[in-house]
Specification:
The complex is a heterodimer. By secondary structure, chain A is α+β, with helices and mostly antiparallel strands. Chain A contains eleven helices and ten strands. Classes of the chains: A alpha+beta, B alpha+beta.
Chain lengths: 378, 393
């Protein structure tokens, strides 16, 4: 039993710190806020380093915790990337048949095809049954897709979309190239400017037979991995924001003293520290559990996302309270962190969605246990 | 990174399971009345000691196995999962013993450690005083130096198991003129010595686990100083930051077992005409507790691993303590939410036995943010010693 990062994972983390310091300095997210911003140089380097494939291969030295370490650093830097999207899409493709693997897997792993996940719909963060986007088979053996997907990150730059749709009443994923003849990409100006999110409108979009993954269990497994990686990203963002608040508390003087000397302020920061540390533990445990396929892996990922969604937001809000009025200004970076953690909550299910799932599991287990004991006594 | 158990961890787990298969008493065998209960628990710990399953991380020469913290965690989790009785010698095992292992003279190690493991000696801890709780360094119990011995005067409180203890680890002032932290020594005091008066205190649960202890001219031989004279504060801090992982993780399993039972009760008990668990607010309350209890486990694994890698526990254990408190309180809160009107029913009726269990759990968990350093003290430790904020005003 050991939840320490391995030397390889630690090395990956420090390489990521260096890379993001070069490509995603503090002023980068602000450029997005002001309507500019272009991270394609960062994306090229992520591809050259092979980091879109971290943890994908079973024998790789990094595993799911490696992906989480990268996502954490991406969150810390508020870097605009499709890292998690591509990682999840690659795992979806890996669960598919030979044709789709041949057509897509290599291009995803190398970062040649940057794929954005297109899952959420008007009132559902993650429609497990495929949702209102409908896939039908066409005469050529391929598929036609119709529906609208929301909050698709970096949709203007993505080479293709990994779309969750309903095929014959079952959930399935489809890789849809960003061909203007087939898809309409509408800028959405979402809460998090660094996500550059779009609305994706599909109207009888054509998908080849080599671009579909019909594997219902892939929906659940990729959802779990995406939830944990997104949780890692949120912890990174919240933790970086907390560090800024701690530094500010040592610097800012009121009543003739650094405000960090007041217990009222100290305890806000200490509580936030507890949240970020425990949330990071939840992420690492869940990531390791997914790799080792433990009995509690699915539940651990659900807990990690539910807990982290609340913890990350609370941490950034605590930082805001310590900054006071200056933290509430447009000029201050605080709201960029807040926008990132709230946007992360919505991806792969927010706290409520995961808590609801946990509640159903808890109740089912309790009923089972009771049925067993009653059964025995009868 | 590895969640599965290694060979040594698997071996000791199987050993505990085999021991439990032979020796685990049924729940109704554990006496309710305190004196007979304590005698029963001493016998239970002696059996475990004879199987060399108590404090396995202690060195072999004092009765341990020199095992890893993770192996200790495995032992504790197995015992907790099986619903095994608690170890009555907890103060010696978790608080005083580790300090003697680290700082005791060879004679002190021989005199005390094996007897702690076997529960031949129960220990109590004489740190807190009526006017020195969170501000422990302001303690006023004094030990006057008479050359070959010290004479102790003062009063200690919140002293768990004092009425059954053979020995007490007492913090007393041995230099009246030194600054608060510098004049304190760590003394091993014989509870059978003349001049000691133990007065049990009944806590809000109705039990008398702790006492007030009065020292009126108690003679303590010089060789009963632990560590160096006037270095007691440092030793006490060692005690308070001693690795909590194994304790936290066995506590976690108990919370897990309690929460599972509570969820089952939520299926059986009705609230407003339907099973309590069908009420979305009750369910949400159970989920909050469930998440906190599992996160406690994840975090304790990571913090214990970090302590092993660092070679020592440290102030980081304050995070574990606060998460444990959060989990404790949420489980207690969930109990009240599930019970509804049963929360205040009399425990006399047999059909309300479960209600009594949850009432007791609710009351007991209220102490979690107070004992072992209050939540406020833990937050101040985190603020100043982890986050590097200025000393508070």
């Amino acid at each position: 039993m050991d939840l320490e990062l391995t030397p390889e994972q630690n090395e990956l983390r420090s390489l990521a710190v260096d890379l993001l310091a070069r490509h995603a300095p503090r002023e980068r997210p602000r450029a997005y806020l002001e309507g500019g911003g272009d991270a394609r140089a960062l994306w090229r380097e992520l591809a050259e380093l092979g980091w879109y494939a971290v943890g994908l291969d079973e024998d790789d030295a990094f595993g799911a915790p490696g992906l989480c370490v990268l996502a954490e650093q991406v969150g810390r830097a508020l870097a605009p990337t499709l890292l998690i999207d591509v990682a999840v899409a690659a795992r979806i493709v890996a669960a598919g048949g030979e044709a789709v693997r041949t057509a897509w897997l290599d291009r995803l792993q190398t970062g040649e095809a940057l794929v954005a996940l297109a899952v959420a719909e008007a009132d559902r963060q993650w429609p497990f049954d495929g949702g209102e986007t409908i896939a039908t088979r066409d005469a050529s053996g391929g598929f036609r897709l119709s529906g609208t997907k929301l909050h698709v990150h970096h949709g203007a730059y993505a080479a293709a979309f990994c779309v969750l749709a309903s095929l014959d009443g079952e959930p399935a994923f489809f890789l849809v190239p960003a061909d203007p003849a087939d898809v309409e990409v509408v800028p959405a100006h979402g809460l998090d400017p660094t996500a550059r999110s779009v609305r994706l409108v599909l109207d009888e979009a054509t998908v080849g037979i080599d671009s579909a993954v019909v594997a219902a269990d892939a929906v659940e497994r990729t959802f779990a991995l995406g939830a944990v990686a997104t949780a890692a990203e949120a912890v990174g963002a919240a933790s970086a924001c907390l560090d800024l608040a701690i530094a500010y508390a040592k610097d800012r003087v009121q009543f003739g003293a650094q405000i960090g000397a007041f217990q009222a302020v100290q305890h806000i920061l200490a509580e936030a520290h507890v949240l970020r540390e425990t949330a990071w533990s939840a992420v690492l445990y869940a990531a390791a559990a997914l790799d080792e396929e433990t009995d509690d892996a699915q539940e651990a990922s659900t807990i990690a996302k539910a807990y982290t969604a609340r913890a990350a937001r609370a941490t950034v809000e605590s930082a805001l309270q310590v900054f006071g009025g200056i933290g509430f200004t447009w000029e201050h970076d605080l709201h960029l962190y807040l926008r990132r953690v709230v946007a992360s909550e919505q991806r792969f299910g927010d706290a409520l969605l995961h808590e609801q799932r946990l509640g159903a599991q808890l109740a089912a287990r309790a009923e089972e246990r009771l049925a067993e004991t009653t059964g025995r006594s009868v | 990174m590895r969640l599965s158990l290694n060979d040594a961890e698997l071996r000791i787990r199987d050993e505990v399971r085999a021991f439990l298969a032979e020796n685990l008493p049924a729940a109704d065998e554990i006496p309710a009345e305190l004196d007979t209960r304590v005698a029963f628990l001493r016998e239970w710990q002696r059996k475990l000691f004879e199987a060399r399953l108590v404090n396995v991380t202690w060195p072999e020469d004092v009765g341990g196995r020199g095992a890893t913290l993770m192996e200790q965690i495995v032992v504790n989790q197995e015992l907790a999962r099986a619903g095994a009785p608690p170890l009555i010698g907890e103060v010696g095992l978790e608080v005083v013993g580790p300090t003697i292992v680290a700082q005791g003279t060879p004679e002190q190690r021989i005199a005390y450690l094996k007897r702690i493991l076997s529960a031949e000696d129960i220990w109590c801890q004489g740190f807190s005083e009526p006017n020195a709780g969170s501000d422990l360094a302001s303690l006023r119990t004094r030990a006057d130096d008479h050359g070959g011995h010290f004479v102790v005067h003062g009063q200690k409180t919140w002293t768990s198991w004092a009425q059954y203890a053979s020995w007490c680890a007492v913090l007393a002032r041995t230099d009246q003129d030194a600054p608060a932290h510098r004049g304190i020594s760590y003394l091993i005091v014989d509870m059978r010595a003349p001049g000691i008066d133990v007065r049990p205190l009944v806590q809000m649960t109705g039990e008398a686990e702790f006492s007030e202890v009065y020292f009126d001219g108690v003679v303590v031989p010089r060789e009963n100083v632990l560590g160096e004279l006037n270095s007691g504060w440092k030793l006490a801090m060692h005690t308070l930051t001693n690795e909590r992982g194994p304790v936290v993780l066995s506590h976690q399993v108990k919370l897990r077992v309690a929460l599972d039972a509570l969820a089952s009760d939520a299926v059986r008990h009705a609230r407003d005409g339907a099973a309590a668990i069908e009420n979305p607010h009750v369910r949400a309350s159970l989920v909050r507790a469930h998440v906190a209890v599992e996160v406690l486990r994840y975090h304790a694994y990571r913090s214990t691993g970090a302590a092993i890698a660092r070679g020592a526990a440290g102030v980081e254990t304050s995070v574990d303590k606060l998460q444990m408190t959060a989990a404790d309180k949420l489980v207690g809160d969930a109990a009240l939410d599930v019970l509804g009107t049963l929360a205040v029913s009399q425990a006399a009726a047999p059909e309300d036995a479960d209600a009594h269990r949850w009432q007791h759990l609710y009351l007991r968990t209220r102490a979690s943010s107070i004992y072992g350093g209050t939540s406020q003290i833990q937050k101040s430790i985190i603020a100043e010693r982890i986050l590097g904020l200025p000393r508070s005003r």
